Amino acid sequence: MKDFILEACVDSVESALAAAEAKVTRLELCSNLIVGGTTPSPCLYHEIRKYTDIPIHVLIRPRFGDFCYSDYEYEMIKQEVKMYTELGAEGVVIGILKSDGTLNTEQLKELAELSKGRSLTLHRAFDVCVNPYHALDQAIDLGFDTILTSGQKNVCIEGMDLLKELVTISEDKIDIQIGSGVNAEAIKKLRPATGARAFHMSGKTSIESAMEYRKEGVNMGLPAMSEYEVWRTDVKKLIAARKVLEEI
Question: pTM for this one?
Fold first, then answer.
């Protein structure tokens, strides 16, 4: 049995199939990865299921930005957790904060109940909470299986000290899954330094759009983002990361 988890974060069928080819442990499925990920369409979920049975954990996040949600947004989150549980997803990835930066344990408890025993991951809302040690204890009490974290830094290498503490304090009661900036080189440093066994990465690479005609000066979104650049998972990056995990 492998003593590691390598999760690929994907937002397209193409990326999911590349991850499956790389023989990752599981997928975190989302949409709009370029803004940190939002809840994916069930059509995307179904299309991926046509081609692979790799376990899927679905990100439930109604919008980009902070994790303090309105009543309308929370109702959407509840319905999406229920929907993906009924569709057969192996897990859901959730996180809600109160305005004071603490976990909204009341809402998270309700979502855990709606997930009906599926695997639960607390996403990087953890990285902007006020007290990571208290949030760790709360996540364990709520029955979460995994915390996805960069150690409360923009990239995981910078959060190494806290990541090591979290792994030690958790005492194997919950997986501390390292994310944000994970690649083969980062794993070489983080795996022995922190003792973490779970890693999360997108392995993104930019490819050219298939469009031959290109209208200049018109943007469909943020001006800084090219309309003719597509992000996909690079199978080679995932294979390299998996190889490091197998060798350490």
Answer: 0.94
Q: How many other C-beta atoms are found inside a 10 Å radius of the C-beta of residue 237?
A: 20
> Can you tell me the distance from the alpha carbon of 177 to that of 227, in angstroms, rounded to the nearest whole number?
33
Is the CB of residue 59 less than 8 Å from the CB of residue 29?
Answer: yes
Residues in the chain, pLDDT under 50: 1
Taking only the tens place, the pLDDT of each residue in 162-182 is 999 999 999 999 999 999 999
Of the candidates 108, 121, 134, the residue with the CA atom closest to the CA atom of residue 5: 121
Residue with tokens 């607390």: 122
CA atoms within 13 A on the CB side of 168: 9
∠ CA 115-55-43, nearest 5°, is 75
3-class secondary-structure state, position 186? helix
The span from the CA of 241 to the CA of 237, in Å, is 6
